[in-house]
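Milestone M4 deliverable, item 7.
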Amino acid sequence: MLTEGRMPKCLNSNGLKWVAIITMLLDHGAVVLIENRILGGPFHLMAAQTSPYIAMWWKVDLVLRFIGRLAFPIFSYQIVEGFLHTRDIKKYGRRLLVFAFISEIPFDLAVFNTWFYPQYQNVYITLFLGLAAIWAVHRYEEEGSLWKQALAVGVCCSLAQLIKADYGAFGVFFVVLLYYCRNRTGMQTVLGCAALAWEVAAPLAFIPIRMYNGRRGDKRWQWFFYIFYPAHLLVLAGIGAVLY
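Output delivered:
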């Protein structure tokens, strides 16, 4: 069990974000370049067993996707931390929403090889809805209204599922779960790992999360972390178009 006292507190907010974006880059690289280009889309284990070439790339893909499972839990945790420490929640939400729109074309180009793919939306949408949900929960916590909290979370989860945002209703629910456990790190770790059990590697994200020391880090990196998501998707789409 990961406990507060056993983990070295060596990561500030920027360090934690670096872990998230590096693991995300590996994950998206596997999807865009290996699964969609080298392997040509969906494939089966039988194909990997009959072709050494496919088998090699299939194994590389598995490793990279395994590592990539750490990214979303860390981003979700950062949404909670951002909510707790931001001076202007509306400005924070607007930034997420603006980058959600900016990222949609790069996301569609990289993952679906088209300029417009309305059947699936990028993760910024999920994070924005997660932020909206915990903002509503916080507001109705102060009123002591559980049914309003539940209604707000339900609406945000339903919207994420309806528009097919990345991770769907679960993504919003996970952000809310981390928020409710914000003052009890042991419970946050246990419940977070349990919620992520369907993705084998994802619970490992709580290792760097528990290494977070609560410090922000250099503010000059703020825009880099926002821009990295659409930028790396454009680069991967470009590499995929040139090489394959």
